[in-house]
Amino acid sequence: MAMSEKQKKAHNEWQRKNYKRVGAKLYKGDAEAFEEYCKKNNTSVNAVLKAYISQCIGRPLEKRGEETEPEKEV
Length: 74
Known about the structure:
By secondary structure, this protein is an all-alpha fold. The chain contains three helices and no strands. It has helices spanning 5-18, 28-40, 45-57. The radius of gyration is 17 Å and the shape is extended.
């Protein structure tokens, strides 16, 4: 079932409060080569970057389940 506008707003608000996007600007050729590397290794760009960030900070990344998001109205 699709989310109502109220649910979308609550979800987006929760994400703004709890997430921060990180990224890198790369030349297209480098980005495409990295995407190809990920594809050949049956993983995603996001998964590789998350694993590297975890390694850099010396601990697993925080994991939160659906239960921490706002209650969805029916």
